[in-house]
């Protein structure tokens, strides 16, 4: 019986280190110009410590960001000016959410959770959008912010930022008559 428990524990430890060892995106491809549900997965804490803050840098070019609140966490956003304002429902939008922060939570090292926001993607097929994530655990932090140099992949970095690949837009023939969809930055 003891040997069985040791074997199961060793297998479980090995599997958890292989599966989802990094912060990541649930969906890694999306049509350029579409509405995108960014789901950032946090698979573990920091060397045994619980995660109590998750900060996500919203990639440049994404607009109309709507973060999803999480029970037990405070939601904060950091605004930044847009290089090119746009019109949305008859009003000029001159800034966007550049960073989303969930703070004050308690995600145990052995647990998994997801942090979500909606946004409009830039209409630039073929682009890779990087989502730098900082996962704070008390005084410690994991900084999933590495962007590979040209010609390298995420495997060439120690702490890769989650990445989204923009595919060709879907041709549905349906138009809302808006420049950038229904969402608003708050």
UniProtKB/TrEMBL annotation:
Keywords: Signal. InterPro entries: YcnI-copper_dom, YcnI-like_sf. It comes from the Bacteria. The keyword Iron does not apply. Residues 1-19 form the signal peptide. Residues 165-186 are annotated as: Disordered. This is DUF1775 domain-containing protein. The lineage of its organism: Bacteria, Pseudomonadati, Pseudomonadota, Gammaproteobacteria, Oceanospirillales. Residues 22-166 form the YncI copper-binding domain. Residues 171-186 have a biased composition (Basic and acidic residues). The keyword Signal applies. It holds the Pfam family DUF1775.
